[in-house]
Amino acid sequence: MSADIFNPSSLMKPVGYSHIAKVTGGSLVYIAGQVSADVSGQLVGEGNFEAQAEQVFKNLKAAVEAAGGTMADLIKMNVYLVAEVDASEVPKFRSVRDRYVNVEKPPASTLVVVTRLARPGWLLEVEAVAAIG
Questions:
Q1: CB burial of residue 126 (10 Å; 0-12, 13-18, 19+)
Q2: For residue 3, what pLDDT is reported?
Q3: Cα gap 111→74, rounded to integer Å
């Protein structure tokens, strides 16, 4: 299996993500949206965006490892931020993310601002796809 992550010159140069992730062979693993909940389901980092981002990425790491992969296998991420998160907080998310993903070839990513998530107190949710094999 191979994953080719790249940015064609025909698109703008992205910062912190890649435009395209092409997979040949292997297995695709879809990871449901992860939130800032610990293993018992309790909210971690109430009101603290950076602490919530850290827990989300710990959960993503646990999920991809349970599927037999590593964080380097992530090829796509969808990030959902609640509207109450100020734009000035986004660099904190990127700082946490960059400790977990391959910063040389980051996953293709989408960031969306939403009104709310499924439970009160959650400030972000991240779902991902990994190519393992």
A1: buried
A2: 82
A3: 16
- Amino acid at site 56: V
Q: How far apart are the first and last CA of the chain?
A: 5
Integer Cα distance of 26 and 33 in angstroms: 22
In one letter, which amino acid is 23?
A: V
Delimit the domains of the chain by residue range. Answer: 2-132
* pLDDT means over runs of 10, the chain (133 residues): 86 88 88 94 97 97 94 96 96 97 94 96 97 90
Tokens of 66: 């349970």
Give, to the nearest 10 degrees, the angle between helix 90-100 and helix 49-66. 30
Output the CA angle 21-22-26, nearest 5 degrees.
115
Which CATH class for the 2-132 domain? alpha beta
71 to each of 23, 29, 66, 110, how far by Cα in Å?
Answer: 16, 12, 11, 17
Beta strands in the chain (DSSP E): 2-6, 20-24, 27-34, 74-82, 108-114, 124-132
